[in-house]
Amino acid sequence: MLLTLDHLTVQLPGAARPLLDEVSLRVAPGEVVGLVGESGSGKSTTAKAALGLLPGGATASGSVRAGDADVLALTGEDLRRHRARTVAMVHQDPRAALNPVRRIGDFLRERGADRARAVELLAAVGLSDPERRLRQRPHELSGGMLQRVVIAGALAVEPRLLLADEATSALDVTTQAEILALLRTLRAEQGAGMLFITHDLHLAAAYCDRVYVMYAGRVVEERTAEALFADPAHPYTRGLLSCSPTLGDTSHTLLPIPGRPPSLSDVFTGCPFAARCPDAEPECDTWRPTAAELPDGGTAACRRIPTAVTTAAASAERSTP
Length: 321
Description:
It is found in: Cell membrane. The protein has helices at about 45-50, 75-85, 105-110, 115-125, 130-135, 145-155, 175-190, 200-205, 225-230, 235-240, 305-320; strands at about 5-10, 20-25, 30-35, 60-65, 70, 85-90, 160-165, 195, 210-215, 220-225, 290-295, 300.
């Protein structure tokens, strides 16, 4: 397994609840795993944990393993080598990843690409006149162009695991398709795995093999992409799909999830989603979310699901001759 998070909990000083709460996740070689949820649900922190990049002052329990390496135990040169070769991350804000006074060519050379390889990478991610781009500085490029540069930098190290945090959100649809195809080629040629963070649920359905849904720092559902979008089990997942527009479908009424996403100052005695859930019952206010296994092998953390699964299994057993 390229990446394994096992009951990872991250607590910040002064926060009323954990930033990440018992998060378990895995990414296998050649697999694209989606991570979806509202802003503030813990998606980026989960990805950064694979690099050992936790917020200052944070305390962590559980484990994060990249291959055979215990990431939370890595220090010094071992940690730098892990970040430089094993795992690469494409951040949501490309300007935060680039030194504003260094040229684009310097950025790529720092990642091991010689001039010819740097030109090849910039061309591959759709930048025109790549020779000239090498001599330019970040302020001379648009946000979308910088996102392509950052993706080229991630590809330069030929990582086993790629963490893509909204990697294509600043790109037009045509370039987005080209970049996703390029990343798919990387996966096929190198056996690389990818953790793909996105707010676009339909993109996750089309591009990912499996999808994790996060809410309030917890994984509330994990399924294959096909199963998740065909028959979502958790009320939060259904809510996300109900408020996601579909291209060309004007008959679909968007139904936003009521209320607001929780902050780190919000404390929950039971299910964090109970206050916004249309299916909530009084018992949900005290029920500690526990993942229940679904018939298709996925999981969902909803109090009503074990009953539904048991009922479905009993019905199937009665119908068997």
